[in-house]
Amino acid sequence: MSYPKTNAAGGRSKGGRCAALLAATALAGSAVLLAAPAAHAEVVDVDYQCKTPIGNKGAVSPIDIKSVESGGGHKLTMSFQKGVSSSPIELGKGAMKPSALIKLGGAESGDVTVTGPPNSEAIPANTPIKISDLSGTYTPKKSGKVTFTASTLTIKAMGTTTTCTPKNNPKPSLTLDVKAAGGGAPSGGAELPQTGPEDSAVALGTLGGTVVLVGAVGVLWLTRRGQVRG
Fold first, then answer.
1. CA–CA separation, 119 vs 80, rounded Å?
2. pLDDT given for residue 218 in this prediction
3. Global pTM?
């Protein structure tokens, strides 16, 4: 049986070492790309201007929007880190019911409604109303990068309705790369392949696999060449 020729130190040929190094580099690069995150979230200050039954009020609250995959959709949770608006009278336990809209951007448009439970404790008069976490479900209709931005907040209490609208045109609190059920088309109309980070990683991973195969062919060629010379 013949073996590939070795150098003076008894190691593999230079060509074989290069092919192996190329294959290892391609695999490592693919692994890093495939692990790239598909979501970005940040806390954003939202300047809410509220129209109440007794006049206008305003307050800035940092808003956080999180997402957890649930079936074919995403469960969204919107959190308020500070209270907004206030009431001239005490709001008893369960007297206040909040809801809000999350504005979609990027590959999708429209709004997602999120709601929360009534207040679990009484809210004293003339104090900021702490909004409980609001949640709702978003189901992608199109594939691509979608942004989620805090929009209108509605507070119902004691038979009245207070509407709070962001004044400062806030940035998105969350960005996701999503895929529609059944492979919906990206925004723009035509059926095109998704070009977000996830698909790019897969494509580059495939390229890495091609490089690995080329490297393997090179090793076989060197082996056969060594056999012929031997």
1. 14
2. 40
3. 0.64
